[in-house]
Structures are given as C-alpha cells and as structure tokens.
Amino acid sequence: MNVIVNVILAVQMLAALAMIGLILIQHGKGADMGAAFGSGSSGSLFGASGSANFLSRTTAVLAAVFFVSTLALAYFGNARPASSGSVLETPAAVVPAGAPASEAPAAPAVPASGAAQIPTK
Asked: Where is this region: Disordered (predicted)?
C-alpha cells in the first residue's frame, strides 16, 4: 500500500511540474492579435495556431491526471485503520536522550473524560 501511495505521489508531482511548464510556455489571448499583423510567433514550431491546440489539450490532460491522483491520494490517506480515540487523548512517551527507544516508559492511564485532565490550582 505504501508503494502505491509513493507512485501516485510521484505521478502527481510530475504532472504538477509539467503543468507549470506548459502554462508558462503558453501565450495569452492578446498575443494572437500581434501574430495576425506579422509580429509574433507565426513561424513557430507548431505553426500559427497549432501550438494553442496542442498545449491547451496537453495541459487539460495533465490537469485531469493531477486531479485523479489527488483524489487517489485522498482516498488512500483516509483508508488507514481508525484508532480507538483521539490523538490528543494519548500522551506521548518521553524517552531520555541516551536511552534506546525500547526502554521507553509505559504511558500512564488516561482518564475516560477530558474534564478529569484539567489541572486544578
């Protein structure tokens, strides 16, 4: 399960970086008017209007991949087994600096209600 999450995370990161690059390469709507009068990228690699279709379609595909990978990561992140209580109700075990983790002190018993944990003066 951890391998699947790592693969999906890598796909999401690559899709995000590719989307950023493609969006920065694209020119705005106002740049088409300049190309019509001869100043612009009419002699570019994709032709006068070919780059807009190619880049916009590729950006749309990458956006869909990013969206699906985000949903998959949310699903796998939420699929963990539910714990018996809140994280705030379980005290952290304090381990001395030189001691190994196996010698951690046992956690004290936690009262059932939160009201019993309020310190009194």
From this structure: 99-121
d(CA 72, CA 63): 14
Give a yes or no: residue 2 inside a domain. yes
Residue 46's closest CA among 34, 58, 62?
Answer: 58
Report if residue 51 sits inside a domain.
yes
- Put simply, whether the predicted model's pTM sits higher than 0.85 gets the answer no
- With b for 16 or more beta-carbon neighbours within 10 A and e for fewer, the 46-70 pattern comes to eeeeebbeebeeebeebeebbeebe
Q: Does residue 68 belong to any structural domain of this protein? A: yes
Q: In total, how many domains does the chain have? A: 1
11 found inside a domain: yes
